[in-house]
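Figure 3 (text version): structure tokens given as input.
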């Protein structure tokens, strides 16, 4: 099995990635991002050759520094939860 090179192009606005595009195995893929008022991703929309899938991010929990430490997302009826632990140094 051989790997395939994929070129990914990012579009930035106001210091945030708002979309990325690539061609994977002959299919054009565009992923667009929207953000909530705290700057975290609110939704990700993936367009694969005209077929669009939306993945909302919900139930954010934040630490005392304002960084998210968990959120939920769902795609095609499957709900997932992502957590992260951030260590701060004084």
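Below: residues designed for each position.
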């Amino acid at each position: 099995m051989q790997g395939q090179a994929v070129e990914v192009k990012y579009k930035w606005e106001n210091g945030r990635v708002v979309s990325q595009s690539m061609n994977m195995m002959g299919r054009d893929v565009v992923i667009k991002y929207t953000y909530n008022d705290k700057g975290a991703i609110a939704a990700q929309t993936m367009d694969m050759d005209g077929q669009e899938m939306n993945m909302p991010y919900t139930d954010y929990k934040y630490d005392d520094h304002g960084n998210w430490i968990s959120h939920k997302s769902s795609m095609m009826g499957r709900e997932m939860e992502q957590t992260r632990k951030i260590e701060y140094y004084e």
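The chain has a mean pLDDT of 91.
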